[in-house]
Amino acid sequence: MKHTNLAVAAAVTGLLAVGATTLTSAPAHAAEKEKCYGVAKAGQNDCATNTSSCAGTSTEDGQKDAFVMVPEGLCDRLAGGSTSSS
C-alpha cells in the first residue's frame, strides 16, 4: 500500500509542476504579439479607434485606425496590414 500511495503522490506532484510551468510561460507569448492596423473586419477590432471608443465597434472592413493583435511579424505579410495607424 505504501508504494501505491508514493506513486500517486509522485504523479500528482509531477502534474502540478507541469501545470505551473505552463502558467508561467503564458506572459512570454503575449509579448510576441503586435497591433496590425487596416485588416480588421467591421465590428472585429481589438480596441478603441480614433472614431469609436470600444473594441468591436469599427464601422467598415479594413478601417485604417482599427487594429487586431497578431503574432509578431505576421502583419507585414497581410494584404493592407500596417503596424502603424494611418
UniProtKB/TrEMBL annotation:
Keywords: Signal
Signal peptide range in chain numbering: 1-30
Pfam family, one: DUF2282
Domain of life: Bacteria
Name assigned to this protein: Signal peptidase
High-level lineage: Bacteria, Pseudomonadati, Pseudomonadota, Gammaproteobacteria, Vibrionales
